[in-house]
Task: structure prediction
Amino acid sequence: MTTTDIPTIADPNESGARAAVRDFVARARGGDLGSAPVVAGLIVIWIVFEILNPTFLSSTNLVNLTMQSAAVGTIALGVVLVLLIGEIDLSVGSVSGLASAVLAVGFVELGMPLPVVLVAAVASGALVGLLFGLIRTRFGVPSFVITLAGLLGVLGVQLAVLGRTGSINLPFESWIVQFGTQWFLPAWLSYTLVVAAVGSYAWSQVVLARRRTEARLPAVPLRTIIVRSVALLVLLTAAAWYLNLSRGVGVMFALFLLLAALTQLALTRTRWGRSVYAVGGNVEAARRAGIRVNRVYVSVFVLCSSLAALGGVFAAARLAAANQSSGGGDTNLNAIAAAVIGGTSLFGGRGSALSAVLGVIVIMSITSGLALINPDSSLRYIITGAVLLLAVVIDSLSRRSRAAAGRA
Amino acid sequence: MTYSTQPAEHLLSLRGISKRFGAVRALTDVDLDVYAGEVVAIVGDNGAGKSTLVKILSGVHPQDAGEISFEGVPVTISNPTEARGLGIETIYQDLSLCDNLDVVSNLWLGRELLTNGGLDEVAMEQQSWTLLRELNARIPSVRVPVAALSGGQRQVVAIARSLVGDPKVVILDEPTAALGVAQTAEVLNLIERLRERGLGVILISHNIADVQAVSDRIVVLRLGRNNGDLRVADVTSEMIIGAITGASDASLLRGTRPAAVAR
Ligand SMILES: Nc1ncnc2c1ncn2[C@@H]1O[C@H](COP(=O)(O)OP(=O)(O)OP(=O)(O)O)[C@@H](O)[C@H]1O
Ligand SMILES: [Mg+2]
Result:
């Protein structure tokens, strides 16, 4: 550090825009790329598939894509949380399958009311997560091993719950299936929600800027807030309008977005969220700072498995069925890949709920784009694998650039 | 922040502290006093017991024998939270910062300010600036991840962090060990700020020049025992090194002997 050209204290009253630019440059030089690579990647993928098959970007296809994204995206949201504390959960696919099975057996075979069955399905996930969290904190076993064992064990429980039938169809008239396949927001409601979301974002920014100005801290200028909010409004309105050209915005997809937004709020605005990042960044420092590290571990494993279970419910609702392969196949890897592709670091402490949304859209775009060209899944697996590898390489490189700058 | 005006409030007094790890006698019958508004350096060769003494004070290990009084009251310090509750903050050699979090988050980690149930980022940022300005600390921005700061700046953040809980005694274990010349000067400057605030500062260091530059009193440990309690003004670096290596007679240097020993 040169001591000559840096002011003793950076002037907190300097223009907000300049401070923002300087912070961004510092972050980028520190190897923190955020969502930039995944957004760039998504644009490339969409252009390529649109060239190969002009129906790819059709409204109908994009509506299908959003409906396919909700289940895996919800699971990926939980994976983001475990990755943030520097752990992994390999059992999310099995847990989602278990929840599908609990839903189908409880509702169809035992004839229990839907709300009760839904609670039971999510609770089964929470219970699995609690078990993982307790084993992780009591015995210090790496989560990789615990959840690998969990992958098998929970799959066994799923098969046991399904019993001999092996496959159960959900009645098409039930509201859960309607919710997963037929419920779309009316156009007026989709626009209202967009306006409400952007409005509350803009308002919170204005309030924050005002408080910061009162506290004589650098604040985002009103002009910038307006420009950003209008840009966001245009983007979201255009997206809603385009989806509304065919069936529109699925209620299940909207619910997934809501969950992602709530998760993001919890991560950035609460003490719990701060402790999640702290544990992922430096467990020992978090412990010395008085954070109850074990509680953070357990809460995150419980949340991850609960979200996986909810994802399983979404999947069953969309397919109107649960069977022995629910949550099997590529569910597990797609969910984990989505979190990583979206920009959440495998090394802990870096990422956001937004990465689950972006990551799952990338994965589902590849799936859907290739299905239009070639129904064979061999190419799909290879390309998804390559994209995942690319994301991990970017993650490792940015970590190395931090290390090279003495900032690991 | 209030600045203590009484020059010599007796903050910490350790008497007859002993600690063994199996067959190793890490500390034997060690005494230590710390007054408000003074910097006490603890020096000694590798394995002399400096870190062990600090760990007893910060609640990492209990002592086997001996008494600790804090502000004249006998206390037992059985875990780090109790030490912090008394007002003893320790800055460990390995910093204990979260690299992925920004400066404000690190300063307030574990004791975040809340408003309406959410984090009060504005108040935390404002108070961070106040604190850093009081310390005359050079931090370019409080909103960059700590990973993007230099080693000296990180040390400054670690020290500032210890002040958020308004402690009475601050312990620094080799704060300049990994730093260059300019950064060392910055940290030493900061230690003087701590003294001006009326804190009792315990500084562990292997660097005699640093110790002479910043401390008021030097407590020498040798093989786990007291081997001198020297006023910096009265001694030369040769005498300090003599006490560390055992070349000079401990009894001669004990207490605050007048300048008779100095040439
Ligand atoms: N947890 C422990 N278990 C066993 N022995 C220990 C432990 N901690 C310290 N010791 C021993 O106690 C003695 C004093 O160690 P201490 O770390 O206090 O020395 P130090 O003065 O801090 O040395 P350095 O200058 O190398 O940091 C050494 O012989 C060390 O090996
Ligand atoms: Mg030591």
Residues B 50-51 surround magnesium ion (ligand 2) (CB under 6 Å). The domain at 35-183+250-395 of chain A is CATH 1.10.3470 (ABC transporter involved in vitamin B12 uptake, BtuC). Chain A touches chain B at residues 1, 3, 6, 8-10, 12, 19, 22-23, 26-27, 29-30, 32, 208, 211-212, 215-217, 269-271, 274-275, 277-278, 280-282, 284-286, 288-291, 349-350, 402, 405-408 (CB under 8 Å).
